[in-house]
Amino acid sequence: MQLNGKVAVVTGAGRGLGQAYAEALAAAGAAVVVNDLDVALAEETAEAIREAGGAAVAEGSAIGSTEAAEAIVAKAVEEFGRLDVMVANAGVLRDRSLLKMEDADFDVVVQTHLRGTFTCGRAAARQFKEQGGGGRLVLIGSPAGQRASFGQTGYTASKAGIVGLVRTWAAELERSGTTVNAVIPVALTRMVATIPGMAELVEKADRGEPIPGEVRASGLGTPADVAALVVFLASDEAAGITGQAFGLGGDRISIWSHPSEVVAEVREGGWTADAIAEAFPTTFQPHLQPFKPDTIPGVPEER
């Protein structure tokens, strides 16, 4: 897979998944703007890319504002002449259950994840249009945005919203040739190390030790596993793929469905509360949807 001549931005690329995305894009031939709030970490990633023979520069804007998004895109154009790929990855966690969550906890998560994806996606799309069309928007979701994730109100709301942006932007930008897709990653990073049962696996991955086969088969591996999907979606081979949410973790890749009705019933004259109650056990109850995630082998279900 070759990305020679392409220019990519990866936000939140100082460590973890973002770092893996930036390094994989560069290894495939793309020039990369490595963004991170911690500019020292961004520079470490960029330097590692340059030492490996790639092209990269560091950028230290705090993701969320329009000004930050425009500065990142401008950096790509100034350094490398254009922009072809925007990977909107930056995020923070402020885990609290609903009754304990403060406004500031919720706001900072939504500001970084959801608003940051919006501003970066818009800035990139405008640059793509100025260049004559085309381009790749790769938005990073999470299993937490697809189903329950206890104690992550702001995070789940943001990640669900990001996948919603994929569908809308794919429709809006289709005529210009820009593709918009979500990656739903599952990987052993510091952000999941606080989940009971996960710390040992994260430490194992950090040491470069092999992840047990049953864990990888269940869909949990390293950031490098997920990076392959980002490279593919950035490539010319993915030109006709848009509006999708792809999951990848360990040895497992998947496509998430779009929301759709699972059952519908028409009642002439409309529905009363009593009529709903009467019909519910046989018409609707069998179709209620599960909301809790499947468990990972060897990892406790409760967080």
Features:
eight-stranded mixed β-sheet; alpha/beta; Rossmann fold; 9 helices; disordered C terminus; 303 residues; globular; single chain
How are the secondary structure elements laid out?
Blueprint lengths: L6 E4 L5 H12 L3 E5 L3 H13 L3 E5 L6 H15 L4 E4 L14 H29 L4 E5 L12 H21 L5 E7 L13 H8 L6 H6 L4 H12 L9 E6 L2 E5 L16 H12 L19
Parallel strand pairs: 1-2, 1-4, 2-3, 4-5, 5-6, 6-7
Antiparallel strand pairs: 7-8
Helix pairs in contact: 1-2, 1-8, 3-4, 4-5
Protein described:
This protein is α/β, with parallel strands linked by helices and 303 residues long. It has one domain (7-256): 3-Layer(aba) Sandwich (Rossmann fold), CATH 3.40.50.720. Helices cover 42% and strands 14% of the residues. The protein is built from nine helices and eight strands. It has helices spanning 16-27, 39-51, 66-80, 103-131, 153-173, 199-206, 213-218, 223-234, 273-284, and strands spanning 7-10, 31-35, 55-59, 85-88, 136-140, 179-185, 244-249, 252-256. It has an eight-stranded mixed beta sheet with strand order 3-2-1-4-5-6-7-8, sandwiched between helices. Strand 4, helix 4 (103-131) and strand 5 (136-140) form a beta-alpha-beta unit. Helix 1 (16-27) crosses helix 8 and helix 4 (103-131) runs parallel beside helix 5. The longest helix has 29 residues, at 103-131. The chain is globular, with a radius of gyration of 21 Å. The two termini are 39 Å apart. Residues 297-303 have low confidence and may be disordered.
Biggest beta-sheet profile: 8 strands, mixed
Kindly give the count of domains.
1
Helix content: 40-55%
Order of helices and strands: EHEHEHEHEHEHHHEEH
Unreliable segments (pLDDT under 50, ≥5 consecutive)?
A: 297-303
Amino- and carboxy-terminal Cα gap: 39 Å
Supply the CATH architecture: 3-Layer(aba) Sandwich
Radius of gyration: 21 Å
Derived from helix and strand composition plus strand pairing, the structural class reads: alpha/beta
What's the CATH H-level homologous superfamily?
NAD(P)-binding Rossmann-like Domain
Tell me how many strands there are: 8
Instruction: Give me the side-by-side strand order of the main sheet.
Output: 3-2-1-4-5-6-7-8
| Number of H- or I-type helical stretches | 9
CATH class equals: Alpha Beta
What is the average per-residue confidence, as pLDDT, rounded to a whole number? 92
